């Protein structure tokens, strides 16, 4: 299975070997399967709330296991059918938590739950790789409020849509900006188009809350033109 540009961008960020990688809201599980295939971690944990999807994925992973019986050092996998907000992060393990392909507001709510449900000690060294669909401005403010710091951020154009891949951790002291300041190259036509798309969208939202959305627009305009 060839990964999309968006999932490839996330996969590329996972260059070091880890104890555990979480593919949260995994759906088809393409990303986790690619990570398993290249043994990126000792264990890959797939999490999604839809039981039928997780049954199909478990069956697929079991059949891959049977085919690979001869390999001793193959990484382990686990499929959890549950709410991502309730995942339990083990202590003293190097871990990456990926949450991709859901709305930014839901993603923030899941992050708030994960952080409320796990001891800060256990979360300290976890890298979170987040790729929401829309609402990145609100998500970024929420992540900053949770005390997370920025590791990296990038814009990915995939299948005629723009995405932001935001990598954060409690271990980073770099402030998360509302607009993703470090990811923009406004000499790049695609980045210019994305900025304009955001400004157009927030202009349409002005009638909902003029003060708030004017601030959002001003922040994006403040990125400059090039
Ligand atoms: C569009 S898929 C994303 C698939 C993959 N992560 C990607 O980026 O291509 C979104 C998935 O999120 C799952 N989901 C939504 N809310 C969830 C929650 N609270 N806990 C676990 N899974 C959830 C849905 O069941 C769905 O399979």
From TrEMBL:
Coiled coil regions, renumbered to chain: none
InterPro entries assigned to the protein according to its UniProt record, in alphabetical order: SAM-dependent_MTases_sf, UCP028234
Highest taxon, organism lineage: Bacteria
Pfam families listed in its UniProt record: Methyltransf_18
SUPFAM superfamilies, alphabetized: S-adenosyl-L-methionine-dependent methyltransferases
Protein name per its UniProtKB record: tRNA (Adenine22-N1)-methyltransferase
Source species of the chain: Pseudoalteromonas carrageenovora IAM 12662
């Amino acid at each position: 299975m060839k990964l999309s540009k968006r999932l490839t961008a996330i996969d590329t960020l996972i260059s070091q070997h880890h104890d555990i990688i979480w593919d949260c809201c995994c759906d088809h599980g393409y990303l986790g399967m690619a990570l398993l295939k290249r043994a990126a971690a000792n264990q890959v944990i797939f999490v999604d709330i839809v039981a039928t999807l997780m049954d199909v994925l478990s069956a697929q992973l079991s059949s891959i296991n049977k085919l690979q019986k001869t390999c001793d050092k193959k990484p382990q996998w686990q499929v959890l059918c549950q709410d991502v907000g309730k995942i339990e992060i083990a202590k003293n393990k190097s871990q990456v938590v990926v949450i991709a392909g859901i709305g930014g507001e839901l993603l923030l709510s899941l992050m708030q739950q994960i952080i409320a449900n796990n001891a800060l000690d256990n979360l300290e060294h976890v890298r979170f790789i987040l790729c929401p669909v829309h609402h990145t401005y609100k998500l970024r403010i929420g992540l900053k409020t949770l005390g997370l710091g920025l590791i990296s951020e990038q814009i990915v154009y995939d299948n005629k849509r723009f995405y932001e891949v935001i990598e954060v951790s409690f271990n980073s002291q770099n402030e998360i900006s509302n607009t993703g300041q470090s990811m923009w190259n406004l000499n790049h036509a695609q980045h210019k188009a994305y900025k304009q798309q955001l400004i157009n969208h927030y202009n349409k939202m002005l009638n909902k809350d003029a003060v708030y959305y004017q601030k959002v627009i001003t922040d994006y305009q403040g990125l400059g033109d090039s």
